[in-house]
Amino acid sequence: SLLSRTPQPQLLTSGAPLPQPFAVPLPVPALAKPSSPGHYDLVEQAAEVEILPGLRTPIWGYGGQFPGPTIEARSGETTVVRLSNGLTQPTVLHLHGGHTPPESDGYPTDLVQPGARRDYTFPLRQRAATLWYHDHRMDYTGPQVWRGLAGFFLVRDPAEEALGLPAGERDIPLMICDRSFAEDGSMPYPGLPGKPGVREAYMGGVLGDVILVNGAPWPQLRVARARYRLRLLNASNARTYELALSSGGPMVRIASDGGLLAAPIAAKQVRLAPAERAEVIVDFGAYRIGDQIELRNLAGEGPQAKVMRFVVDRDEADDSTIPRVLSEVARLDPSKAAVTRDFDFNSGTMHGGGGWLINGNPFDPKRIEARPKLGDIEIWRLTSDVAHPVHLHLAQFQVLSVNGERPAGPPEWKDTVELRDAQTVEIITRFTGYRGRYVVHCHNLEHEDMAMMATFEVV
Ligand code: C2O
Ligand code: CU
């Protein structure tokens, strides 16, 4: 069958002793401090951090931290990130979900060399949303993100702040990713480019056996009997999560990759493919003091079925609300589309070995796969062999159909959509703001590094 011929993600087994789940408190990444209003300095550094109790883990981090510091920015206000590369390898910064001019979008060959620095300018003419920044170097995104190069970038706006959603300490970003650890505490990455054979073994993707939230293994958070806004990000290289509460209770979904939904949707499960985000509100006021509620991963087994735990330990006043109307999400009209384009995500042969291709081609910066016109609405028909989380730079989109069926519910803005095995997903988008070169790619980072990426140029 198709599946048996196609490489599947490989689970790495840790050699280090692993902690009991829920023994470690949840860290919340520090907020980045601006060097002047709207300006942030991010220095990429090698560092050692304690992830597993008693062991030192070498990482590459923005500011030497994993996750990197959280940047809080405002819609419509230009934010400049000055990236300094203090590492031994070239890097590229990409703001995932950003509506960004091409020279600041982190094209995969636009390298910042060791010792060099570069300003990335983000005008942020876009709505409030949970974005993230991460490395995007051609052929090396998998290993460089695995080592720790990822952080949150939150865009806020007044309309969202006026809603009365949980805020402050009850608005918590949760970066979920999997890693595995050698006996000495290091996080070796197996599929390095240039190591023949090793890379091919991990062509399907790299899965770790430890689930980290904000860089801590299976952590625990003490919460009040109140509503919390949880910004869920799947920052894993290749793992997809199906998140659910052990209580069976609801999580109220309020936002997707592209910000607020039209209206809240109570959900028992939230599925997140690599790079997808979902914001949910959990009302711990519905529980009793002493209750322990696990966030589980129904798509995982054994330890990988656990994510983190909440312990309700106090009463506190709560004046937050979940309004019935959250935002306006106008449906893009398919009859206005200038063109429908096909993008086939499929494995194939490149340079005599296996590779991941789009429309039969491996990524080549010299090749332009599509030239949408500025201002045009387009429909992109995406097809898959095996599962691929597809991410489009620059333009947020809406899902028009999955295997010919229109999705239930009102439209939502996305920047990453999961194609499951042998699926056809049609998305509709409008190219606004900037002309220039951008990429569309699979966000399984091993697939991306093995060339499942294509350039489009807005003309
Ligand atoms: Cu999250 Cu092109 O990347
Ligand atoms: Cu893929």
TrEMBL record:
<dbReference type="InterPro" id="IPR006311">
    <property type="entry name" value="TAT_signal"/>
</dbReference>
<dbReference type="Pfam" id="PF07731">
    <property type="entry name" value="Cu-oxidase_2"/>
</dbReference>
<feature type="domain" description="Plastocyanin-like">
    <location>
        <begin position="348"/>
        <end position="458"/>
    </location>
</feature>
<feature type="domain" description="Plastocyanin-like">
    <location>
        <begin position="47"/>
        <end position="159"/>
    </location>
</feature>
<protein>
    <recommendedName>
        <fullName>Multicopper oxidase CueO</fullName>
        <ecNumber>1.16.3.4</ecNumber>
    </recommendedName>
</protein>
<comment type="similarity">
    <text>Belongs to the multicopper oxidase family.</text>
</comment>
<dbReference type="InterPro" id="IPR045087">
    <property type="entry name" value="Cu-oxidase_fam"/>
</dbReference>
<keyword id="KW-0732">Signal</keyword>
<dbReference type="InterPro" id="IPR002355">
    <property type="entry name" value="Cu_oxidase_Cu_BS"/>
</dbReference>
<comment type="subunit">
    <text>Monomer.</text>
</comment>
<dbReference type="InterPro" id="IPR011706">
    <property type="entry name" value="Cu-oxidase_C"/>
</dbReference>
<dbReference type="InterPro" id="IPR011707">
    <property type="entry name" value="Cu-oxidase-like_N"/>
</dbReference>
<keyword id="KW-0479">Metal-binding</keyword>
<dbReference type="Pfam" id="PF07732">
    <property type="entry name" value="Cu-oxidase_3"/>
</dbReference>
<keyword id="KW-0560">Oxidoreductase</keyword>
